[in-house]
Design a protein that fits this description.
Elements lengths: L3 H15 L6 H21 L8 H26 L5 H28 L19 H17 L2 H15 L3 H9 L3 H8 L5 H14 L3 H9 L3 H10 L2 H14 L6 H6 L2 H10 L5 H14 L3 H9 L2 H9 L4 H15 L3 H9 L2 H9 L7 H15 L3 H9 L2 H11 L2 H14 L4 H10 L1 H7 L6 H14 L3 H9 L1 H13 L5 H13 L3 H8 L4 H9 L5 H21 L2
Helix pairs in contact: 1-2, 1-3, 2-4, 3-4, 5-6, 5-7, 5-8, 6-9, 8-9, 9-12, 11-12, 12-15, 14-15, 15-18, 17-18, 17-20, 18-21, 20-21, 21-24, 23-24, 24-27, 27-30, 29-30, 30-33, 31-33, 32-33
């Protein structure tokens, strides 16, 4: 059992060792002041009749651990072997806060009378309708136990605290008002007792979900301990830490602190480890995704191999892991052509096409995410579109246009709509694949947006001569267009789009002939008389054709 006398000797030695330090002089002076205050408190306890009290013994162990960490910082400042000024300044601030908590804890056990008690009175949790004052009293009791209790008292206090904060948001609001409770939770993340660490991580994960308290956690120095948990904590602790960091980094201002403490390396290590569970990998991907908005951090991620790592995760059988990794790839490459090229070289486009493949065992949600990523990463470049066609993407897209769930089918239509606005070769490929007959089916959809996308896409495809000929070969296609035109109200948006398609078809002899010989010609003429957009042009083209037909009859009579 650690003795008070041993702690006094270590603290006194540390004070002496720190005096020659020349760098960060003000910060070291503050730490020395706090060490001297701590030494005075320990000296007062040296003659206490409860030296063997387990609560005090646990506190002395914590003080010795902090002193050991401080020795390491002091050595690096003496040798000038620290890696960066900002990081060292932050570490010294954290160390000062630790010693300050030790001083408060010693004061707390003295004033609470715990040193002379062989037992402690446990305050019961107030009922659901308890007033704020009762809850504050309960939280203060839990705080005292987390500060000065033995291992079991701390563990039970953390369990009780977690049960309360996950039950109702209002308890989190009251909790944060209790002074020093956030600082204590932060300190417990560095506990050598893994059970204490993981329970603290679970509570912090809940609090970090509240936007109004993220700044409180950041101000208490939460990032460094969370990264250390990621590096060496238990699996459950790591999961809580990763979830907390994901929530905290939703604000890009906090990205630098995660990077400064080596968070990127720790997160990538989690993503590459075969032993990491889904509950850990998903938030780890989420944190990395939140950090890519900072160019310097993004470049470091790329250097550390983030792209191939996350491409590999996109092939996971777990939906949540797939979606998280695809979101990361989309974010890191969305506005950077060089990164987009890297994603392509590393097999990222092929991986996304595999997720989208109807033959894969992936969920609809994963496919939707893959299709969105394919659109964002590939549709802006003819080269990437050719790559997609080589991987069989056109056939996949057509499959979901025919057979997909409503959500996937709508996304497939939007993707087809965008592709139709690309190169002539892309349009030809879509015509050959059979997209036109499928787009026709959407022309009488209930949604105007769907009808509009289908009509614009079809109009774009039939602008290609080869596609026009293919389209009019099927009498049902032209007949269906004319039938819809007859049903639509005059001057409606859909009617104008249908006329636009028919106008394109008149560039083909067989198309003009089929329209002119249909029973819908008078209807088209009425539309022209009603000043419907492009209807007059359509009548003129058809009339020219009809006039020539009359002449042919006269000449051959």
């Amino acid at each position: 059992m650690c003795s008070v006398r041993q702690a006094i000797e270590v603290i006194s030695s540390l004070i002496s060792y720190s005096h020659p330090i020349k760098v960060f002089a003000m910060k070291w002076q503050l730490i020395r002041n706090k060490l001297e205050e701590l030494c005075s408190s320990l000296t007062a306890l040296d003659n206490c009749d409860s030296i063997q009290n387990p609560i005090l013994s646990g506190m002395i162990s914590g003080i010795l651990a902090s002193a050991s960490d401080c020795y390491d910082l002091a050595r690096r400042c003496v040798d000038l072997s620290y890696s960066g000024k900002l990081l060292m300044q932050s570490d010294l601030d954290v160390m000062f806060a630790k010693f300050e908590r030790h001083v408060k804890n010693l004061f707390g056990i003295c004033t609470a009378g715990i040193l002379t008690q062989g037992f402690a009175i446990v305050v019961s949790r107030p009922g659901d309708n308890a007033c704020k004052d009762d809850m504050m009293f309960y939280f203060r009791d839990l705080l005292t136990r987390m500060k000065i209790g033995d291992l079991e008292m701390k563990r039970q206090a953390l369990l009780d605290l977690y049960d309360v904060v996950v039950e109702d948001d209002k308890y989190v609001n009251i909790l944060v008002e209790v002074g020093d409770i956030v600082n204590i939770l932060v300190s417990l993340l560095d506990s050598v007792e893994l059970e204490i660490q993981q329970e603290a991580a679970k509570v912090v994960s809940v609090i970090s979900g509240f936007d109004s308290y993220k700044s409180v956690l950041i101000g208490a120095g939460i990032v460094g301990p969370l990264i250390r948990v990621l590096e060496s904590g238990s699996e459950i602790s790591k999961e809580g830490a990763a979830r907390s960091l994901q929530k905290l980094t939703e604000n890009s201002d906090n990205a630098w602190s995660v990077s400064a403490y080596g968070g990127v390396t720790a997160l990538l290590k989690i993503c590459t480890s075969a032993d990491s569970r889904t509950a850990l990998v998903c938030p780890a991907c989420g944190v990395l995704r939140n950090l890519v908005g900072v160019d310097e951090i993004k470049r470091f991620m790329i250097e550390e191999g983030a792209v191939p790592t996350l491409i590999k995760l996109a092939g996971s059988k777990d939906e949540a892991v797939q979606i998280s990794s695809i979101e990361f790839l989309q974010n890191i490459a969305s506005v950077d052509e060089s990164v987009r090229q890297l994603v392509a070289r590393e097999g990222g486009i092929r991986a996304l096409v595999r997720v989208f493949d109807p033959k894969s065992a992936c969920t609809s949600k994963s496919r939707e995410m893959a299709l969105r990523a394919i659109e964002n990463l590939c549709f802006s470049s003819a080269g990437y579109i050719i790559m997609l066609m080589n991987y069989g993407f056109m056939d996949q897209l057509l499959f979901f246009l025919r057979n997909g769930d409503v959500s996937v089918q709508e996304l497939a239509l939007k993707a087809a709509f965008r592709l139709c606005g690309k190169s002539e070769e892309t349009k030809k490929a879509m015509g050959d694949a059979g997209f036109m007959s499928e787009l026709v089916k959407f022309l009488d959809a209930k949604s105007f947006e769907v009808r509009e996308m289908a009509a614009v896409a079809l109009s774009s495809l039939v602008s290609v001569p080869k596609n026009r000929k293919r389209f009019v070969q099927d009498d049902r296609n032209v007949g269906f267009l004319l039938q819809l035109l007859d049903q639509e109200e005059a001057n409606s948006g859909s009617k104008k789009l249908l006329i636009s398609i028919l106008l394109s078809l008149t560039s083909c002899n067989s198309g003009r002939k089929k329209i002119a010989s249909s029973g819908y010609l008078k209807n088209i003429e009425k539309l022209a008389e009603a000043e419907v957009s492009d209807a007059k042009r359509l009548v003129r083209k058809l009339s020219t054709n009809r006039f020539r037909s009359i002449l042919n009859v006269i000449w051959h009579s």
